[in-house]
TrEMBL record:
This is Ig-like domain-containing protein. Keywords: Adaptive immunity, Cell membrane, Disulfide bond, Glycoprotein, Immunity, Membrane, Signal, T cell receptor. GO terms for cellular component: T cell receptor complex. Residues 24-127 form the Ig-like domain. It comes from the Eukaryota. Residues 1-24 form the signal peptide.
Length: 127
């Protein structure tokens, strides 16, 4: 099961989708989020083509992969965390309010591109 999650993590970390010779690019900033207890922080996920949904994940130091949000548009909130999507401007944000020690983890986004099986195939980022 851990190996499957590791492979899944690799595929979700950065997706490239070929749609009519256009390349889907997903960039997250900051690359490393330094949380300070009691403070609020946010991550930005920019993507280059139309999408159907964004997923935000947390991976704790023990390696457990946790899905935080699956969102197509608007705003979702779960406790101290909130995710927003602006599909027109092609970005999503993850907000973490009042950070606690348990929030220490890796956070990342994954984008599901709008494409058909005939025109899209997923490739892992080579970098």
């Amino acid at each position: 099961m851990k190996m499957q999650r590791g492979v899944l993590l690799g595929f979700l970390w950065m997706q490239i989708c070929w749609v009519r010779r256009a390349q889907m690019k997903v960039e997250q900033s900051p690359q490393v989020l330094n949380l300070q207890e009691g403070m609020s922080s946010s991550l930005l996920c920019n993507y280059s083509l139309s999408m159907t949904s964004i997923q935000w994940f947390q991976q704790n130091p023990g390696g457990q992969l946790i899905s935080l949000f699956y969102i197509a548009s608007g705003v979702q909130q779960n406790g101290r965390m909130k995710s927003t999507v602006n599909s027109k401007e092609r970005y999503s944000q993850l907000f973490i309010r009042d950070s606690q020690p348990g929030d220490s983890a890796s956070y990342f986004c994954a984008v599901e591109a709008q494409c058909s099986p005939d025109t899209c195939s997923l490739h892992m980022n080579d970098s």
